[in-house]
Amino acid sequence: MATPVKLSDTIISEAKIMSKAVNRSVAGQIEHWARIGRLAEENPDLTYEFIKNILIAQEEARAEKLEPYTLRAKRAK
User: Fold this and answer.
1) What is the pLDDT of residues 12-59, one digit of tens each?
2) 63 phi-psi bin (left φ>0, alpha ψ -120 to 50, beta other)
C-alpha cells in the first residue's frame, strides 16, 4: 500500500538526477536510498560496498544466478 510522504525539494531533485543515471524511477531511487539507509543503521559496522554486495547477492540468489565458490589452494611459504 502506497502512503504519501512529504519530501524536500532537494531530495526529490537529487533523486531525479540519480534515477536517470541508474535507470530507476524517482520513487524507486528514493526507496533504494531508504533501504540502504535502514540496513546501514541496523549494521553500523558494515560498509556501503559490503551492504551493496549483499543486496546484489540476494537478487542473484532469487534469480538462481549463483556460482559455486571454489577455495584456492594455499600458497607454500
Assistant:
1) 999 999 999 999 999 999 999 999 999 999 999 999 999 999 998 899
2) alpha
**Cell representation of residue 40:** 546501514
Cell numbers describing residue 56: 546484489
Residue 13, all three cell numbers: 531533485
Distances (CA, A) of 34 to 27, 30, 56, 63, 77: 10, 6, 16, 23, 47
Which alpha helices (H) appear in 1-77, and where do they start and end? 9-22, 26-42, 48-62
CA 13 to chain centre: 20
In the three-class reduction of DSSP (H, G, I as helix; E, B as strand; rest coil), residue 43 is classed as coil
Nearest CA to 30 among 50, 48, 47, 10?
10
Question: Cα-atom radius of gyration of the chain, to the nearest Å?
Answer: 18
